[in-house]
Structures are given as C-alpha cells and as structure tokens.
Amino acid sequence: xxxxxxxxxxxxxxxxxxxxxxxxxxxxxxxxxxxxxxxxxxxxxxxxxxxxxxxxxxxxxxxxxxxxxxxxxxxxxxxxxxxxxxxxxxxxxxxxxxxxxxxxxxxxxxxxxxxxxxxxxxxxxxxxxxxxxxxxxxxxxxxxxxxxxxxxxxxxxxxxxxxxxxxxxxxxxxxxxxxxxxxxxxxxxxxxxxxxxxxxxxxxxxxxxxxxxxxxxxxxxxxxxxxxxxxxxxxxxxxxxxxxxxxxxxxxxxxxxxxxxxxxxxxxxxxxxxxxxxxxxxxxxxxxxxxxxxxxxxxxxxxxxxxxxxxxxxxxxxxxxxxxxxxxxxxxxxxxxxxxxxxxxxxxxxxxxxxxxxxxxxxxxxxxxxxxxxxxxxxx
Length: 380
Ligand SMILES: Nc1ncnc2c1ncn2[C@@H]1O[C@H](COP(=O)(O)OP(=O)(O)OP(=O)(O)O)[C@@H](O)[C@H]1O
Ligand SMILES: [Mg+2]
What we know:
By secondary structure, the protein is of the alpha+beta class. The protein has helices at residues 2-66, 84-90, 95-98, 147-193, 201-224, 237-254, 276-294, 324-327, 345-355; strands at 70-75, 78-82, 107-108, 113-115, 121-129, 139-146, 233-236, 257-263, 271-274, 298-307, 310-316, 359-365, 369-377.
C-alpha cells in the first residue's frame, strides 16, 4: 500500500513538475513574445517619430533655403540656426561661427538695425514669429528684410529713369540741331564747287569734315533715347586714336597745349573689335576734359602699351587735378565743376568702355594733374 502510494506520489510529482515546467515554458514563451512584440512596437514608433522629425527638419531647411528673406531661429536669445541670406547679410564666413551667439550681438530690436560681422550697421525691417513654437523657451523665428538693398534698388531705378528722360531730351535737341546743320552743309558744298574762290577751298574742306563730325555726334544723341546695338567691327586702334588727336588738336592749340603720342611702332597694326565712333567719343571726352583742366601751356601725353592680350591707354595731363573729396563724385551723372558742363562725359565714357569689355580708372593729384587709364581687349 505504502509502495503504491509512493509510486502514485512519484507519478503525481512527475506530472506536477512536468506540468509546472510546461506551464513555465508556455508562460516564458508568452513573456518572450510579449517582450519581442513590445520591443518591435517600440522600435516602430521610434522610427516613425524619427522619420517625422527628419521630414520636418528637411522641410524647415528647404523653407529656410528658398525663402526670399533672411531668417534666423532664436532660442533663449541664442541664434540656433540661420539661412544663407542671413549669413550674407551679416557678411559672416561660416554658419557655425554665428550659431550659438547672442542674437542681440547682431540685432538691435529697439533701433531696427543689424550689425554686420565687420561692425557696419544697416537699417532692417524685423518680424518675429513664435506661434506654434515653444514660447516658454523663448523660441522664435526672426525674418530680416534688408532696407539698404531696397534703397539701392530705388536709386538704381531713379538713375535709369533720369537717363531715359535725358535720352529723350537729347534726342529732341539733336533733332533741332540737325536742320540748321543740313542747310550749313549745303551752302558750304556750294562754296566748295565755286572755282573762282580757290583760297577758301581748304577752309571749306575742314568745315565740311567738322560738320560731318557734328552730324555724327547728333546722330548719336538721336539714338540715345532708344537703346542701340553697338556697331562693332575690327579696327586699327592706331587710326582711331590718331584721328581723335587730329580733331582735338584744334582746341589744344588755342591754349598752347601739345598733345604727345607715345606709341610703340609694333602696336601700329593692333586691332580692336569695337564700335569706332563710340571709342572716338570716349577719347574726345577725355582729351577735352584734360584741355579744360589745363587751359594753359603744357603737355597731354597719350601713352599706349600692350599688356598680355589687352591694350592700356593712359591720358596724362598737367591740369589742376581733382581734390580728394571730389574724387568719389567724378563720373556720377550730372556731376560737373564746369559752368557749361553737363557732367555726363565720364559717365557715358565709362559705360561705352564697359560695353567693350574694357575698364576705365582715374588717378589725380590736386595741382599736379590727372591720369585716365583705359584698358581694352585686343582682337588678334
Ligand atoms: N582731366 C581732368 N582734370 C581735372 N578734373 C577733371 C578731369 N576730367 C574730369 N574732371 C572733373 O570731372 C567732372 C566731370 O567730368 P565729365 O566729363 O563727366 O563732365 P564735364 O566735363 O563736367 O561736362 P561735359 O563732359 O558734359 O562737358 C568735371 O566737371 C571735372 O571737375
Ligand atoms: Mg567732360
């Protein structure tokens, strides 16, 4: 009996322990499954959240990049991000140099001013947006509009408007001049064919060629109102400058001014791809300025050299020179120190030289003289 009970007990114990092991095993599997599922769900949520954050970050970056305005993101008074336009406005070299800095280092909210990295201040329009951001962290987006740029654009528009008005005016005047010139030319041609008066023939020839030049300038003025394509061709630079010297000599002689020409003979055949009449207009302007600055005996030197594939022309006069404080205004439209000057000569000259892919600069010393340098590409 006892033996049977022991066996029964042992079988029961075996059953219980197998059952326990089985239950534990089943229970463990469930835990493992639960854990694995939990881990999976957790990782999925983590991934989705990261993806959302990443998308938001990319959207934000692209909005900031494409925005037509300078943007800064400020958190607790520190600049945490800024776009390229803001960086350009600050003239800062790297974003990471600006990030983390106190916003008030660059922005004055009371004066609506921005201080560039160089220390220069400019007027700006500021707009703060903090809606939807963590207000308690003092986070806001700052939109900065450069008012300086607006002012420059406005000035440029005004400049072009003035030019177009001037063009119309010039065209009107040119039209009026053309009629008497035509009749003058007709009578001169009549005198020229009159063989009984041979002594005046040489004069009429000069007068006719001068009238031709006036006609040419008048035609230029007539088209000033409308923008005109340049009439560029290959020309010998030497011939252009020589003609200009011949024409301006008549005015120089009045003041006993000599126009000296330094020209390396090897440059005699150098070609320039240009509108020759426009270049003549430039050189006449410069030599006339030199004569008007001298108005007494002296020399104007025209020095021509070649540097690589460019011609360098220097017009050196011994005139009164330009005071330092006036130097900045020279070449701006309507700036003149002459009673009858228009203050357009240098501005138009500079424009023409630029149209020829050249460069024009000036140096001057008050009481000593002025040098005008012109650089033009050679057409070999
Ligand atoms: N060689 C020079 N020496 C001294 N001052 C000069 C010289 N060239 C130009 N300037 C100064 O620059 C100003 C502007 O010259 P610009 O040729 O543009 O106009 P302008 O000579 O005054 O008038 P316009 O050319 O219509 O007769 C002149 O009034 C003069 O003060
Ligand atoms: Mg002039």
